[in-house]
Amino acid sequence: MGRPAARLYRALEGLFAVYKPPGVHWKLVRDTVETNLLRGLNGAPRPAPRSQVKFLPEPCRDNRVTLEASVLPVLADHPLVAGPQFQKLRVGVGHRLDVFSSGILVLGVGQGNVRLTEMYNSHNTRDYTLEGEFGRATDDFSCHGRVIERTTYGHVTKDKLESVLAMIQGVNQKALLTYSNVDMRSQEAYELAAKGSLRPQSKSPPIITGLRCLKFAPPHFTLEVHCVNETQKYLRRLVHEIGLELRSSAVCTGVRRERDGPFKLQHALTRQHWTLPDITQAVHCSWATWTGGEVNTVQLKKKSSTFKTQTVLARCGTKRWTLDMK
Amino acid sequence: MALSSMQMCRKCSFLLGMRKLCVELQRSSRVLCTVNRQRSTIFPHSAGVLRSLRTPPCARETQLRVCAFSDVHPTALPGQVSRTPPIHPVDDQDSQAVDASKQFCDSVGSPVDLLSLVEHRMPLEDMDGAPALSPFEEISEEEAIQIQAQPAMPPVSISLKDYVEQSETLQQLLLLGVDLWKLEQRPNVGSMLLRLDFQMDVKERLLFLKDVGVEDSQLGSLITRNPFILTEGLENLKARVEYLKSKKFNQQAVASMVSRAPYLLNFSIERLDNRLSFYQQTLGLSAEKTRNLVIRLPRLLCGSLEPVKENLKVCELELGFHTNEIQHIITTIPKVLTASKKKLTEIFDYVHNVMGIPHVLIAKSPQILNSKLLRIKERHLFLQYLGRAQYDPNQPNYVSLNRLVSLPDNVFCSDVALASLEDFELFQKTL
């Protein structure tokens, strides 16, 4: 006898990360995970069917019919009539990945969906690895699109690439300060900036918080990007624009997400492991990550920081410096 | 049925000289209740008939409720009511009434219709007009025992759960292993099942399927997938099986075909013949090979021919296979004919253009067209990363395409890639 399905389901509620292969839509990933979970849950033993007392006629001696009271299971509770215990699950998807990109996709089951919203509101950074190729430009910035331009790339060196990256990072750093909604002249802002945990507090355009070149072997190059509120299309466009800045052109051959908030690559489940026991294990691990991990502390700090800043300002009697929030 | 009742109404009214009523009756859809009321005035006996027929109340109620579930006007259920065997022997009054109605019919015409009419209408009249059994009437012990007090069934329901306890058909189907919860989701199937009578309709067909050679364990899944085989005419089913046998399919083949393609026996002989000749002529196969093809994938005979034609064109023009190569591919993997053409072209594109495998090799091991693109991609890239992606049979360290796609992950890693499963999973995370 295994555990009943309701208990299995309760152990399943929470967040976990899967590794989305390239070329597959995120919805297909979600549906596959849901189907596998349903199969696992419905394989669990069912509760015993209700029973009812029935008076059945029973022929006995001297041809008289008597009624016999008998306890029978209710037919409506038969598995073939009642159907599976779980017909669908609430499986929510965190920050999406489009078809051509791969990497970590965070999924939530049941009550875990609440934490997905929390994760969205905490504006975590995500890490990406971008594969680029110099020499051509396409209409959708990926290597699958229609080629609209071909260029030479002999003049591109690693130094030039890095200077362009530094320039982009500088621009984004400025935008980050603008959107982070913290008083720039406060001690709190200094501390946050020194730790590198400044975040936009509300909706913002995509902001890159870190950018570096991992590998440079023309025409191929690899970038590592840390960013907030991005889309995969924005990242491909970034590669395109780096190409233009270098007086050449570039397409993005791969976008791969290596971290989404507290979820790292080693936590992600590959296709073979999208089964009930493995996912339950991953959800269990993610609770540990969540309670002791990065996300919660960052959120707390943010709340306390705004509070402290305001009190400090009030005590000093200075007029609050407002940011230009356009 | 409706027409004959109309005729009868007209004649009744003619007898009674009630022309006005006749017009009304023609208009109203509930012709028959009123007719019954009329008749009870004509025949003093028929009130007695009603009373005697009322005695098994639960059976009648069941039928009425069934009508309600099926959401069809009671006139649509001629067969069922008349078929239910009367639990009590027909008493004298009843037979008198039937005789009387026969005489009436003879004078009026169409005796069969009227007879069935009398029988159908009883339950309705039972509910409507006649007074209930007096609570003071004495009944014997025997009768008292046979009265079954069952909870009333809901008149309308979205699920078959409410009817399982009372319906014999559903109970027997349940014992066979039919997934009733799947069937109730299909439109009109629930009411169709409730209308069937197990002894009359279902049993014969089940015995027939057993005669064909379908195994007991397969019957449940067969009916789950095709419940309409229970309403198909038995002569038709027999004729179709005979047709298949006349085309030299042996008993076992027919049995496996019927259980794997449940809709096979619901299609007409012309259609089956058309399909068989199409496959034989278009693919240019011999009779024996066509038979093998159809036995391996019997749903070829059920489905539309358009996608199959498209797939053949895709193989010929887009993928560029020769006719004999197509023949070979199809006889080894018949599923290629029903696969999605988008999937076929994607896989072929990757295998031919990226992995660089010529047509001849693909035609030799067509299993690769049946597998998943993602699987091929991952394994090819892993082998390439390890430096083992060598698909030319003339070179050393040759990896056959069949082994590439058909082995499970752990065997692939240990035998083909000579790496550990953990390495393969880590590699998957870098794609």
Automatic annotation (TrEMBL), chain A:
Pseudouridine synthase II N-terminal domain segment(s): 87-232
SUPFAM superfamilies found in the cross-reference section: Pseudouridine synthase
Gene Ontology biological process terms, A to Z: pseudouridine synthesis; RNA processing
Pfam families named among the record's database cross-references: TruB_N (PF01509)
Family matches, as Gene3D superfamilies: Pseudouridine synthase
InterPro entries hit by this protein: PsdUridine_synth_cat_dom_sf, PsdUridine_synth_N, Trub2
GO MF annotation: an example: RNA binding
Similarity section: Belongs to the pseudouridine synthase TruB family.
Full protein name: TruB pseudouridine (psi) synthase family member 2
UniProt organism field: Scleropages formosus
UniProtKB/TrEMBL annotation, chain B:
PANTHER family assigned: CGI-12 PROTEIN-RELATED, TRANSCRIPTION TERMINATION FACTOR 3, MITOCHONDRIAL
Gene3D superfamilies found in the cross-reference section: Transcription termination factor 3, mitochondrial
Database matches in SMART domains: Mterf
Stated name of the protein: Transcription termination factor 3, mitochondrial
One Pfam family cited in the UniProt record for this chain: mTERF
Localization: Mitochondrion
Gene Ontology terms, MF aspect: nucleic acid binding
One GO biological process term: regulation of DNA-templated transcription
The species this protein was found in: Scleropages formosus
Keyword Transcription regulation set for record: yes
Family, similarity comment: Belongs to the mTERF family.
Primary gene name: MTERF3
